[in-house]
Design brief:
- The protein is mostly helical and 277 residues long.
- The protein has twelve helices and four strands, in the order ααααααααααββββαα.
- A hairpin with a 3-residue loop joins β1 and β2.
- α5 packs across α10.
- The chain starts with 16 loop residues before the first helix and ends with a helix.
């Protein structure tokens, strides 16, 4: 009978919420991730191997890859003295990388907010019904205004649609509730404050050159919502078969943190515990 091999060192995922909130459970998760990504029994660890792979891909994308392999191909017994060549790589790839990244980063849309709450939907419905009534009774309303000086129109006559197609365009382009305008403005300020276009360009560059891109969202009472770029070189994640990473168990970013900062965040940690993290 074949001997079973332990392939996972993660604690039980069906543990109680109280157990998952404990420091011991979090420590066991961290050590399992460390064992999966930083264990170097068989050469380079997974984390270091990813770093080297991503570094080489970025060198090729910039046209700065190493030239030793080209010399090995052309050399005869290691002798290159008879060759008078310019070994500098021709930067062909960067041009196409820029074309792809610029095409992906081009923002050809604007943010549009539409209220979905019952009050907002009811208000939009009442406004549209008023326009439809004015469209159906336009001749009668014009006759009453000319003969009796009574304005029976419920909406602005100058912007009154002439048919159903114009009504659909009017509701999509012209009609806006105050809460919808406020939401659009808030989202635009959020994106501009976080320099979202620059972050998106960096993420698209990573997708083009190394095949993976990442950002992270956070919230604080002082700064509000923050969108930050994450270098994939510093990422760790669980095994996945999906290119969209939608079935991962964990994902994390490796950061350099001073020991004093860790002690402030986790007062119960000792120096011995810090050495194991």
């Amino acid at each position: 009978m074949a001997e079973s091999v332990i392939t996972s060192y993660f604690p039980s995922q069906i543990a109680s919420d109280e157990e998952k909130m404990s420091l011991d459970y979090g420590t066991s998760i961290g050590r399992a991730i460390e064992n999966e990504w930083f264990k170097t029994d068989n050469g380079l660890g997974r984390f270091k191997s990813n770093q080297n792979t991503f570094h080489n891909l970025r060198l090729y994308a910039r046209g700065e890859q190493g030239i030793q392999k080209y010399k090995d191909e052309l050399s005869i017994n290691g002798d290159l003295s008879y060759l008078n060549l310019d070994w500098k790589p021709v930067p062909v790839i960067p041009k196409f990388v820029d074309i792809v990244v610029n095409g992906m980063s081009e923002r050809t849309f604007d943010i549009k907010a539409y209220s979905q709450d019952p009050y907002g939907v009811e208000k939009r419905t009442r406004y549209m019904e008023a326009i439809i009534r004015d469209m159906q009774t336009k001749e009668l309303n014009e006759f009453a205004a000319a003969e009796f000086g009574v304005n029976l129109f419920e909406t602005d006559q100058e912007t009154l649609p002439k048919n159903k197609e114009e009504l659909d365009l009017h509701m999509q382009l012209s009609y806006k509730q105050q809460v919808e305008l406020a939401e659009e403005q808030a989202l635009n300020v959020l994106l501009e404050g976080n320099k979202y276009d620059l972050i998106k360009r960096r993420c698209n560059y990573d997708l083009t050159t190394i095949g993976i891109g990442a950002v992270k969202n956070s919230f604080s009472k002082a700064e509000g919502v923050k969108v930050e770029y994450v270098d994939p070189v510093n990422l760790v994640w669980s095994y996945t078969d999906s290119p969209y990473f939608d079935d991962i168990y964990y994902v994390g970013e490796i950061r350099r943190v001073h020991l004093n900062e860790l002690k402030k965040e986790f007062p119960g940690l000792t120096n011995v515990d810090l050495l194991h993290i």
